[in-house]
Amino acid sequence: MNFSYTRFIEIGVAVATGLTAGGMSYITFVEAPCRAKLSAADQVLHFRTTFHRAMGVFKPAGIVLVPTLIVCARLTGKPLYYAAALPFALFAPFTALTIAPIYKQLLTCPSPANPKEEEDVKALVSTWAKRHAVRTFLAISGFMCTVSACVLLEGHE
């Protein structure tokens, strides 16, 4: 394959994984701590306001990145792209098993009406933030593997 064409693909994959890691990091390090300072009712409202937009960005990114990284590994002969695909491949099962139940609760719960309900909502949001931080770690790991693979000049062309 043409070297410049392959490099173009590698740079595109690096940008896509970087944007995903950056977006996940923003949620973990900015949005989640700010949300934690809100009242329970506002936490629910904020979560519902941002949830669908975030899912509209991160779900397709997770679906597209894995096969793209695998194709990039095959085209370049750089196995680090396989390593980069692994953390992104873990997104779906990790989310389905540990975070989706929290999504369902936060999207369907009524606005908290008493102190016990407020505590429950705050605990849910806190648990969600911690689990989201795991996904952020996965995204950053995938990005770091992608950057490492991209700067390697070895592999077959």
Automatic annotation (TrEMBL):
It comes from the Eukaryota. Keywords: Membrane, Transmembrane, Transmembrane helix. This is DUF1772-domain-containing protein. InterPro entries: Anthrone_oxy. PANTHER family: DUF1772 DOMAIN-CONTAINING PROTEIN (PTHR36535:SF1), YALI0E30327P (PTHR36535). It comes from Gracilariopsis chorda. The chain crosses the membrane at residues 12-30, 50-73, 80-103, 133-153. Pfam families: Anthrone_oxy.
